[in-house]
């Protein structure tokens, strides 16, 4: 099946695109987008891959669902488009960066700037129906994104995986920790962060330290 995705990813995942579950998933997504308002817009579904080629990946952040509010989702986990108010989880991410790296709070929540530096911002499910969290779960996206994580783990080395919250930790269970660096903490959502499971994890400075140790360039968070 031809999928409109960045060429290096197409090369890595072409066998996945030919599997029966993926054809079924595409059929489901097309029907949903035709009959309902869904996010992100169709051209942004594979945006995380389009902004960060397979060869460039050095950090992977795993999210769960796209944002389901109007205009929020842009295909990168935790990210919102320019001019959109930052959701609480993203605010907490920036607060941690502010404390950890002494960087100023950014003016917008568009994380394309991270993706262009080699940060794959991967949601487990790449689409959602408007205002219905989790509405596209268990339709095949999780199998596809498991394959993405497995491919990165098997094919690359010295990638930093940031697993925030229980869902992401389960999703990252098969990562080969002997050749990659895995950092875990609570989720940046207010519920988790305000109970002490997020703030102070120093994941952003730890990521950069590991990248330097393995002769890679730091991320400008």
Automatic annotation (TrEMBL):
Give the EC number.
3.2.2.27
| GO cellular component, as recorded | cytoplasm
PROSITE patterns the record matches: U_DNA_GLYCOSYLASE
Q: Where in the cell is it found?
A: Cytoplasm
User: What InterPro entries does this protein's entry cite?
Assistant: UDG_fam1, Ura-DNA_Glyclase_AS, Uracil-DNA_glycosylase-like, Uracil-DNA_glycosylase-like_sf
| Domain Uracil-DNA glycosylase-like intervals | 50-211
User: Gene3D superfamilies, from UniProt?
Assistant: Uracil-DNA glycosylase-like domain
A molecular function (GO) term: uracil DNA N-glycosylase activity
**Catalyzed reactions per annotation:** Hydrolyzes single-stranded DNA or mismatched double-stranded DNA and polynucleotides, releasing free uracil
Q: What class of enzyme is it?
A: hydrolase
Out of the domains of life, which is the source?
Bacteria
Keywords, ordered alphabetically: Cytoplasm, DNA damage, DNA repair, Hydrolase
Q: Which Pfam families match?
A: UDG
Record GO biological process: base-excision repair, AP site formation via deaminated base removal
Active-site annotation: 65
**Family in the record:** Belongs to the uracil-DNA glycosylase (UDG) superfamily. UNG family.
Summary of the function given for this chain in its UniProt record: Excises uracil residues from the DNA which can arise as a result of misincorporation of dUMP residues by DNA polymerase or due to deamination of cytosine.
Q: What protein does this entry describe?
A: Uracil-DNA glycosylase
Q: What organism is listed for this UniProt entry?
A: Aquimarina atlantica
């Amino acid at each position: 099946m031809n999928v409109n995705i960045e060429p290096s990813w197409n090369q890595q995942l072409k066998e996945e695109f030919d599997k029966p579950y993926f054809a079924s998933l595409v059929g489901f997504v097309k029907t949903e987008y035709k009959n309902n308002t869904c996010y992100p817009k169709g051209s942004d579904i594979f945006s995380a891959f389009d902004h960060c080629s397979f060869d460039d990946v050095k950090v992977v952040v795993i999210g769960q669902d796209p944002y389901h509010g109007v205009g929020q989702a842009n295909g990168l986990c935790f990210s919102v488009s320019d001019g959109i108010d930052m959701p609480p989880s993203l605010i907490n991410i920036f607060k941690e960066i502010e404390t950890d790296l002494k960087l100023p709070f950014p003016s917008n929540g568009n994380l394309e700037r991270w993706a262009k530096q080699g940060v794959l911002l991967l949601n487990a499910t790449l689409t959602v129906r408007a205002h219905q969290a989790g509405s596209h779960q268990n339709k095949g996206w999780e199998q596809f994104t498991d394959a993405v994580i497995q491919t990165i783990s098997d094919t690359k080395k010295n990638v930093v995986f940031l697993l925030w919250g229980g869902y992401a930790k389960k999703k990252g269970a098969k990562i080969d920790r002997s050749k990659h660096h895995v950092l875990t903490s609570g989720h940046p959502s207010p519920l988790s962060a305000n109970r002490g499971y997020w703030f102070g994890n120093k994941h952003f400075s730890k990521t950069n330290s590991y990248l330097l140790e393995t002769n890679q360039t730091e991320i400008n968070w």
